[in-house]
């Protein structure tokens, strides 16, 4: 192989195909969920410690815009990650691996992510 | 080149399988908790702590905590070995992630089983 052939790794000049976008979002949401777990664990802890702390955390969830924003963000990441995981499992079993079907699977995954995000937004607010 | 010494099961195939099994556990738990919260809009402390008082919910929660530990280790290991090329920096990143995972698991056990 000719080692001198031109290589372009400048991401800003490469048009990412949809499966690449759905894949990188799977990773981004995974990392975000790991960090966001601090908030989920805190909320779970508060909700189970005592009745007062339960009432206080549910009041926060009902009145704080910031808390709602975090909850919505994490739920969006969670459901996108879940959908992308299902896509990944299907592809492990050999489905949607061709150019056209792979493209369609990425499209469906991204669309499902948007739909879940909207539904979770409605639920949280 | 990245060697597999820091991978979860020291074997790519084992990690691959673990990632999928833990993913199914996490998906099932997500649907259970979100489903419970959606179908119980006016949740009270008595209902909520009663729910987590069931042995099966506690066992499922413990399984989920352990799955989070394994799943996030394999995932963050993959991401860090892909993007952090410098060994020292990658080691520090993985050490911080590993510590945080351990904290999550211990904290979670305390919350779920310390009721």
UniProtKB/TrEMBL annotation, chain A:
It is found in: Membrane. Its cofactor is heme. Keywords: Heme, Iron, Membrane, Metal-binding, Transmembrane, Transmembrane helix. The keyword Disulfide bond does not apply. It is a multi-pass membrane protein. The keyword Mitochondrion does not apply. Its main location: membrane. PROSITE patterns: SDH_CYT_1 (PS01000). SUPFAM superfamilies: Fumarate reductase respiratory complex transmembrane subunits. Pfam families: Sdh_cyt. The chain crosses the membrane at residues 24-44, 64-83, 104-124. InterPro entries: SQR/QFR_C/D, Succ_DH_cyt_bsu_CS, Succ_DH_cytb556, SuccDH_FuR_B_TM-su. Part of an enzyme complex containing four subunits: a flavoprotein, an iron-sulfur protein, plus two membrane-anchoring proteins, SdhC and SdhD. The complex can form homotrimers. Belongs to the cytochrome b560 family. Membrane-anchoring subunit of succinate dehydrogenase (SDH). This is Succinate dehydrogenase cytochrome b556 subunit. The lineage of its organism: Bacteria, Pseudomonadati, Pseudomonadota, Gammaproteobacteria, Oceanospirillales.
Automatic annotation (TrEMBL), chain B:
Pfam families: Sdh_cyt (PF01127). The keyword Cytoplasm does not apply. CDD domains: SQR_TypeC_SdhD. InterPro entries: SQR/QFR_C/D, Succ_DH_anchor, SuccDH_FuR_B_TM-su. Keywords: Cell inner membrane, Cell membrane, Electron transport, Heme, Iron, Membrane, Metal-binding, Transmembrane, Transmembrane helix, Transport, Tricarboxylic acid cycle. It is a multi-pass membrane protein. Pathway: Carbohydrate metabolism; tricarboxylic acid cycle. Its main location: membrane. SUPFAM superfamilies: Fumarate reductase respiratory complex transmembrane subunits. Its cofactor is heme. It is found in: Cell inner membrane. The chain crosses the membrane at residues 21-39, 59-79, 91-113. NCBIfam families: succ_dehyd_anc (TIGR02968). PANTHER family: SUCCINATE DEHYDROGENASE HYDROPHOBIC MEMBRANE ANCHOR SUBUNIT. Membrane-anchoring subunit of succinate dehydrogenase (SDH). This is Succinate dehydrogenase hydrophobic membrane anchor subunit. It comes from Pokkaliibacter plantistimulans.
């Amino acid at each position: 192989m000719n080692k001198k052939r031109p290589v372009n790794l400048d991401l800003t000049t490469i048009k990412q195909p949809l499966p690449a976008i759905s894949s990188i979002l799977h990773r981004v949401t995974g990392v975000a969920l790991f960090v966001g777990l601090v908030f989920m664990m805190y909320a779970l802890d508060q909700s189970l410690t005592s009745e007062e702390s339960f009432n206080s955390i549910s009041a926060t969830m009902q009145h704080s815009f910031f808390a709602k924003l975090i909850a919505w963000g994490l739920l969006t990441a969670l459901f996108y990650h879940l959908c992308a995981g299902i896509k990944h499992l299907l592809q492990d079993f050999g489905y949607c691996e061709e150019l056209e079907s792979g493209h369609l699977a990425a499209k469906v995954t991204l669309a499902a992510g948007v739909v879940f995000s909207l539904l979770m937004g409605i639920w949280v607010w | 080149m990245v060697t597999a010494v820091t991978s979860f099961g020291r074997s790519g195939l084992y990690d691959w399988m673990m990632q999928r099994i833990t993913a199914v556990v996490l998906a099932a738990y997500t649907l259970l908790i979100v489903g419970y919260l959606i179908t119980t809009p006016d949740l009270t402390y008595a209902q909520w702590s009663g729910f987590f008082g069931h042995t099966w919910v506690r066992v499922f929660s413990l399984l989920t905590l352990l799955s989070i530990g394994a799943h996030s280790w394999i995932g963050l290991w993959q991401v860090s070995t892909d993007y952090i090329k410098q060994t020292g920096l990658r080691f520090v990143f993985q050490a911080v992630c590993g510590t945080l995972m351990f904290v999550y698991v211990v904290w979670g056990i305390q919350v779920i089983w310390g009721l």
